[in-house]
Amino acid sequence: MRPARALIDLQALRHNYRLARELSGAKALAVVKADAYGHGAVRCALALETEADGFAVACIEEALELRAAGIKAPVLLLEGFFEASELALIAEHDLWCVVHSLWQLEAIEQTAVRKPLNIWLKLDSGMHRVGLHPKDYHEAYQRLLASGKVARIVLMTHFARADELDASTTEQQVAVFQAARQGLAAECSLRNSPGVLGWPQVPSDWVRPGIMLYGATPFEVEQAAAARLQPVMTLQSRIISVRELPTGEPVGYGAKFTSPRPTRVGVVAMGYADGYPRHAPTGTPVVVAGKRTQLIGRVSMDMLCVDLTEVPEAGIGSPVELWGKQVLASDVAQQAGTIPYQIFCNLRRVPLDYYGE
Ligand SMILES: *Cc1c(COP(=O)(O)O)cnc(C)c1O
């Protein structure tokens, strides 16, 4: 059997969820969209269900997958519905629903629903992606109330630059939000993972941690709260071939690496078809047989090469950690010019093995 695996530590997932609650002192919706950032939404949600205040997903398809698995906790649709016809299912399955655009508000006014809806009314406080314009916010709130179709409204917004700890944008967004919500007596939700970890002064009755649940930092710099996260995924495989090269020999496609000295090269059963980033360059950290070494040459579809010159004890069958508790996914991501969010979401073909139930 091909040895490539992603081990998922559910104990670490629970630790990170509790940390989000502890740091924020708020209720926390565990964000499990995109199959829990590649970690398996159903298994992750089941592991958190007894303690989570609820979950958040991107769309009704993802929400129904959780309901089909027996998850009874609240599930928020972060983009609401894409067509008014989804409203019947939203009511039937007791899903919570973001309203981010006026067309959604109108659809709610015009559609008969069997049960009152839980709405999260989203303000565009400066990110300019989705969310209502501040000038429309009060009126939208009043219209939702007047529609008679709404049981509860939570006021929300989303930060564009909370991962930049020195950017003033986050405080400006908070000010825009506070001004827009003046006079509206409802709970609010502002903070995502970087908000929870890096912006403790920002009020938020509900927080929406995503990446931090999986134990990866959203910051490019070291940060004290993020240092308390526990990595959940270990992407591992084994050495399947070893060769000794003299100085001056190329390795892999495009000969992007040439041995600068006699080099012992190990081949690992892991490639970009598994989601390992093809743009990870020579020098990207990897752990072989418990020792830190580096990737060499181009990543290919099913294999990649590592330098074993300083790991003489490693041979065929030696375990390799591509990322996990020894090599951080965020470090691999940074080397590859991307973010841990993307390398987790790109994971495919690799079986997921769960532990720490
Ligand atoms: C994805 C998402 C989150 C979670 O963001 P993280 O940075 O992963 O914590 C929170 N809120 C909204 C609206 C989202 O779309």
UniProtKB/TrEMBL annotation:
It comes from Pseudomonas machongensis. It catalyses: L-alanine = D-alanine. Catalyzes the interconversion of L-alanine and D-alanine. May also act on other amino acids. It comes from the Bacteria. Pathway: Amino-acid biosynthesis; D-alanine biosynthesis; D-alanine from L-alanine: step 1/1. NCBIfam families: alr. Pfam families: Ala_racemase_C (PF00842), Ala_racemase_N (PF01168). Its cofactor is pyridoxal 5'-phosphate. This is Alanine racemase. Keywords: Isomerase, Pyridoxal phosphate. The active site is at K33, Y253. Belongs to the alanine racemase family. Substrate binds at R129, M301. Its EC number is 5.1.1.1. InterPro entries: Ala_racemase, Ala_racemase/Decarboxylase_C, Ala_racemase_C, Ala_racemase_N, Ala_racemase_pyridoxalP-BS, PLP-binding_barrel. GO terms for molecular function: alanine racemase activity. Residues 232-355 form the Alanine racemase C-terminal domain. The lineage of its organism: Bacteria, Pseudomonadati, Pseudomonadota, Gammaproteobacteria, Pseudomonadales. The modification N6-(pyridoxal phosphate)lysine is found at K33. Coiled coil: none annotated. The keyword Isomerase applies. Signal peptide: none annotated.
